[in-house]
User: Fold this.
Amino acid sequence: MALVAGVDSSTQSCKVVVRDAETGALVRSGRASHPDGTEIDPRHWWDALQSAVRDAGGLEDVDAVAVGGQQHGMVALDADGEVVRDALLWNDTRSAPSALDLVAELGGPQAWADAIGSVPVASLTVTKLRWLRDHEPDAAARVAAVALPHDWLTWRLAGHGPGSGGLDALTTDRSDASGTGYWSPFTEDYRRDLLTLALGHDAVLPRVVAAGAAAGTTGADGLVRAGAALGPGAGDNAAAALGLGMVAGDVAISIGTSGVVSAVSATPTADGSGLVTGFADATGAYLPLACTLNASRVLDAAARMLGVDHAGLSQLALSAPSGADGLVLVPYLEGERTPNKPDATGALHGMRLANTTPAHLARAAVEGMLCALADGLDALRAQGVPVERLFLIGGGAQSEAVRRIAPAVLGAPVTVPTPGEYVADGAARQAAWVLGGGDQPPAWTAAGEAEVYEAEPAPAVRDHYAAVRDLTATRP
Assistant:
């Protein structure tokens, strides 16, 4: 039995799954935590990967491995392969002014959408490079190569690392490259002029490996047996889509640290409004998506305010009426990306004596989070992206209240697959694809059994939310 491993190096933790390459059956798994923060020394990812591998019983018996990872994180390397400074993660918003500068310098939002399929916001790597150039010029001058988190881990698995040089051995895939801000889904190539516009000079960029092709083999560091095949890896959303076996018309609504509405499309998008980012997927198609900065943490915050656990929050929310009797929570607790309001704060509107109860607040938190995701779904439709089936995934999808309220707010049934590590599963499916060859990934997916939730659409909830969502304050 040939075994493959998939890695999910996410914002909060590292997960490893080992699966049968032929059937996809789960053999074993492991995990380890990442430190909190929006800037991280990449060595913590490597340390966590080693811990997760040990927790999974080792990878000495696997024949192929691939890494899925959080997108956009800026890993800046010098000529010796040393990390120049801590990586700025996708959720670090300090580069919001830099994004505005870049947008203006190229001629406006539509010019960027036409160039890379997306309009730069603080999450994209290109804006972080501009911030580095403007605020830490000495560090920027030392940058010889720029990688993303999954690129860096794949490079380490191939036997390279700090002090070893080997920058030309860096690899990536089109899904993660499409989230940098200097790769075009229209030409399938880097826009080095945009890299230079941001960083101030050119740099080594990872070679983009085709879907299903090998990025190389593992090195002799003992973490994985030497000579195992290395998949190109993928950005987390593309890896999850691969793990679920999504096809054109499928939309995944992922409620994790961030909220992501992503769809598989046969054609790229170029949304000048910036609401939809025109990313690529891990199979050769495209993955237009809308992302919110605030998802499961909205539920965390509401539970904390009410002094209950998540089960208690769900129970409270389901005990309140649809629309929470007019109480609306705008969930911009960490600023927001969709819409682009990095300095916004959250707000409660419509408070009256009758609706200032724990149940109403719980309901408003769930509905507010879902309304923000529904705005993302509308943005995809406006770009002509087909929306035929909704998957509800991520940690937040385990909330009974979220599952039951989602179809009412989203206006369509939602399919909730068996809980799983879809990003790591997608990476494992990619590893099996590399191992087996062929034009398509293996037939198996990790979606498992699924339950469909239906409810009468509740347009009034979205109408009330739309009426107040822009009435937010900014941070002092």
Q: What stands out?
A: The first strand starts at residue 3 and ends at 9. The chain has a mean pLDDT of 95.
